[in-house]
Structure formats: structure tokens, C-alpha cells
Design a protein that fits this description.
The chain is α+β, with helices and mostly antiparallel strands and 391 residues long. Helix content is 31%, strand content 25%. The longest helix is centred in the last third of the chain and has 16 residues. Keywords: FAD, Flavoprotein. This is NAD(P)/FAD-dependent oxidoreductase.
Amino acid sequence: MEYDVLVVGAGAAGLMTAIVAGGRGRRVLVVDHANRPGKKILMSGGGRCNFTNTGTTPGHFISANPHFCKSALARYTPWDFIAMVDRHRIAWHEKSPGQLFCDDSSKQIVRMLLDECAAAGVRVETSCPLSNVRATTDGFVGETPLGHVRAASLVVATGGLSIPSLGASGFGYALAEQFGHSILPLRAGLVPLTLSGKHQERYDGLAGVALPVEARVPGASFHDAMLFTHRGLSGPAILQVSSYWEAGADLRLDLLPGLDAAQALREGRVERPGVELKTLLSSLLPRRFAERLCEVWLPNRPMRQYRDAELNAIGAQLADWPVVASGTEGYRTAEVTLGGVDTDEVSSTTMMSRRQPNLYFVGEVLDVTGHLGGYNFQWAWASGHAAGLAV
């Protein structure tokens, strides 16, 4: 079988590459070892797919080269993708500022991409692993269950290591290394943090309790919800900061973001002098958590018995609460993989390898990782669009 373009991976970035290349008249084959296309799309956003973020900027991405993503993002914007969604009459809504979701189901996004592929003459084959890939004088050749495939251009759109239950593997990284590329250190991102020992025991029984926090590590902070789990901490604020956290890093929480905690406690003493600290804190924080704070860390007595200095100290503690995480839940639940193919070895305009002619990398396999909230999908669309114009 002979094609102009062979795309490895039928996820967001691979399908977008195929759509754009097929629309240019290229003969495109997309292969994926999974049994259906777009598996990660299907499970994203609680099954409604947070398909883009209208506030996307290069600052929402983590990469050893923060400038790499700028060209592709500028040339294919969230509004370009929204136009495709609207053309297919898929209803959507804005959940949080900038975060767009399908009203109905993420299946609609996968169906849209496959319909676009069909319209562009793209062939998509699932349960079709690629192996024994090698370069030839006029492109690449590889083996599939369908037989040998020859293609002038090869696009690696295999994603990262996140959520292996959906078929994630390191195949794309191995392919990159085969053709002389460096892989920057890989680790799980947008992932819950785990606690252990006394640090877990002190929060035992709080699973399911959620509250708004500002989570901080050196160089990054995020104001969003936090959720206690049976094994540690999750929720958007923790997922966001996890991409910047490394073992041993100083992690702090403002448990009352946007509030001067010391002032609130002093005012509470004036208004409710007879109530205990845990009762007052229960009006500012989830009750179970407030009670636990006073059982383990904070002195609990009637408010009238506290001096200003004590309340100021408690307020400062609540605004800078230390958390000693032991690790993360790992790739099993991580939404993304940090690190990947070194972008210094890839053209930011075309996504083509600087090591091997006509070899392209798109999406998560590259060392470009977005924040939570639709940014990783926008990178998939933008990088796929850039490659699709070039292959």
C-alpha cells in the first residue's frame, strides 16, 4: 500500500493532521493500535470533551522551549476549531471562563473528526499496530496487519504515557529515538498527589471534602478547587500544580484564598465571642475539615480567649498551609505526560524533524504540555494543522 502520508495515532492531533493533509489532496492513511479512534477524546471532560479554551496563550504551556508552541497556536486558534464545531452543528457551552464543552457528548467531536477525514478521503484503520518502521530513499516503510505500507511522510501522533488503560504506550518515543531524537525526561502531569504516613493519617476520613484553595509551588500558583481523596489530594488546583511539583518541592495552600484570614478571625471574635474556633472556622471552611484542623493542628477554645497575636498567627498559618506530598498517582490517572521529543530538534512552523526529512511530530508526544482546561486539545489541533499543511 502506498500513501503520501502515514499518520501513527488516531487521536486529536493525528486526526487533525490527516484532515488538513487530506484536504490538500494528499493520500493519507491513519493507523492506531487501539480498537477505536479518539479514545482520550471520548473520556475527556467527563464525557463531554473540553475541546478548547478561548483564552489560550503560549503561557498556558510547559516546555523546555517556551517559544516553540507560539507559531502553531497563532496560525490555528480556538476560533478556527469552534468554526468546525459550529459547522457540524455541535452544541457547546462555556463552563468556566474560556473552557468550552459539548452540551451532549464527546462522541460528537470524534464523529466530526472522522466525518472530516472521510470528506478529505482519509483512510482510518484501528486495531492496526505499526512495526518495523524504517526510512527509505523516498520516505518510510512499515509493517501493519494490512500489509506493508509505504509513505513519503510519517507523522508521529502517538500521544504520551498517560492512562495506559486507553492504550497509551511509549511507541512514539521509541520511534523518535530510532531516528536520532532526544527525549526529555518524562513524568505524569495534571495528576492527583498522594500522601503517606502521618501526613495521610492526619487527613484520614476527609475523602470527598472539597474547598477552593490557592495551591503554590516555587514558580507557579493556581486558584481553584481542591478535593481530598482516600490517598491524597486532587481537584483542579492540585492537578494544575502537579505539573510543576516534583518530589521534595515546597507545596503550600492558601485555605481561604481572597480572604484576610486573620482579619476574619478577629471580626468573628467580636461578633461571636462565645463560639469555639472550630465552629467559627466551619463557617469559612467545610465543617469536617475545620473540625480536623482544630483536632490536630490548631488550639480550640472559645473565641473570646484568643489574643490578637494568636489569631494573626492562625490566620497566617491558614494562608500558607504546608502539604508534604509523597508522590503522584502516576500515569494511571494522569491527564498528560510532561516532557517528550525535544522541540529544539523539530521545526516550530512545520513540526518536521530536523534529524530526519519528512518525519513529523504532533501533539502530546512533543515536549509541550498544556494546563488543565482545554489547552492540550488546542495544542493537538494547532500542531496537527501545522503539520497537515506541510506534509
